[in-house]
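Consider the tokenized backbone below.
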């Protein structure tokens, strides 16, 4: 799961350049959760973003970095989740 969570849906990720359903399902899920958390957290190289900004970024990456079906499910869940940032 961890090894492949930087693989992008379009094949542009790493370490193995996997694409689409060749990326393990759990890795495709983790990529989205990890991206949301990374954008919601202040880092030395960027400020924490709010929920709307994160959703805009994830939506722009749909089908490129993220699996469209999993992203749609994530967006439905995160909209009502206590893990959502404001």
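A designed sequence for it:
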């Amino acid at each position: 799961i961890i090894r492949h969570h930087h693989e992008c849906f379009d094949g542009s990720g790493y370490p193995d350049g996997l694409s689409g359903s060749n990326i393990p399902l759990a890795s495709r899920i983790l990529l989205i959760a990890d991206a949301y958390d990374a954008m919601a957290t202040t880092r030395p190289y960027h400020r924490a973003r709010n929920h709307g900004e994160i959703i805009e970024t994830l939506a722009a990456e749909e089908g490129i970095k993220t699996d469209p079906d999993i992203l749609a499910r994530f967006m439905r869940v995160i909209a009502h989740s206590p893990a959502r940032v404001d």
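The mean pLDDT is 97.
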